[in-house]
User: Fold this.
Amino acid sequence: MNSSSSSMGGDGRHDDDAALTEFLASLMDYTPTIPDELVEHYLARSGFHCPDIRLTRLISVATQKFISDVASDALQHCKARQAAPVKDKSKQPKDKRLVLTMDDLSKALQEYGVNLKHQEYFADSPSTGMDPMSREE
Amino acid sequence: MSDGGKESERDHESRSKKNQSSAGCDEFGRAVAKVAVAQICESVGLEGCNLSAIDAFSEVVVRYIYDLGKSARFYANLAGRADCNVFDIIQSLEDLSAPMGFSGASDIHHCLVGSGVAREITQYVNTVDEVPFAKPIPKFPISRLPKSSPSFAQAGLEPAGKHIPDWLPRFPDPHTYVHTPVWNKRATDAKADKIEQARQRRKAERSLLGLQQRLASNAAAGFQPVNDDGTGKAKQVVASTSNPFLAPPLTFTEKEVSEVVIPCEMDEGKKLLDEGKKLSDEDKKLTAVETFAPIIEAVKSGSLDLDLSEKKPLLTSRPTVHFKIGVDKKSIASSLTAMNPRKDAWPFRDEEKDDKKKRAEMILREAMEKPHDLAQL
Assistant:
């Protein structure tokens, strides 16, 4: 690192430092949706050891962000599917409900590097193998 | 496989929380993760989700947490530390977010404090509404402390031998490792048993004999009290089963009594007695039973009917018993139970009932039920 960037980076770093510390402090006020006990359990399983609760909160917040990102992506896919021209008019009122399906989820997770594939169909009824959206529930 | 759309509500069906996480089957954690994921999806705007989708999603989330922890630990160990740091976490976040990309990802020399991921997370926290988890959950997994056996000092015992320190756990009780033969505590004396048996048999025989004699004497003129040792006992056998009215009657001048009215049922009793008398020639033991059947039956039923509706002329010899002969059918058990409290109330009882006597009477009654039925038929 050259001195100029380091000196400038020093101020920036100081700001960033302050921002980070402030953020970590604010984490104690914020209650993440994922409970602390759950996160602690899985972190303990992985070998992560830290007595500081703020770091646990940080991880739970990061996970929450991840989930919300994936869920919003899936929502986009669902809406896109609904916006597409419908084949059958009788189905339209039913599709207004936004439901998270495996299809949308796998598409959303694909971008995050998670390959989620599930069974296309189990051949136990005559309507198996058809497009799930076009199938009458 | 798309199941029906499911509302991601508070009452998630995955709430079958089993508070045990066996190795390889982390049900409780999975269930909690499912609920959390469903809550976040709801906050994003999704109205429902498929069960399989939520299962897969929660699995991914658990893996995410696990991977974050693993890489954070890796970075800490790389730096020569055992405990993790905020910088370790930021680095692991960067690793996991690499596919998606974040601002400043290409800058390899940047300070972690100013990392893009940290900024993004800060932004996220500031913008998104707080949605706390639905219910408080306990700290899991719950580890159970093993129950240790108390030491010698704790139990207050002296250790057996000087070579054993008293802080060691105490020895188990001898009954856990020593098998001792079990003896019957009762002292059995064969001779005494035989004598007792013979005595009881004699008693039973005497009572039966007395019964017979009384029967023979009473057949002629109602019930006459016979002051015989055997019959006295026999009478007490019968009497003590039932009724103070079967007491040995007082002599004429003993007590001032009013005139007694004989109910009409007395004739029936006499008739049956006569019948019994006819049969008495055949088989002695059986007749005793048969003849006594209605009498004891009436006694059992316990209803001594002093019905004053019909008045009849008084006999010269006052009968001691008034009967109501009925068709009441009673089980032996009820008769025995009826027998016992009356036995206690019986004031003139001298001796206790022996087991043999009880049994004899039970057999009598048992035999009585059937001939009684036949007689009634």
User: Anything to note?
Assistant: The radius of gyration of chain A is 23 Å. Residues 32 and 61 of chain A are 6 Å apart (CA to CA).
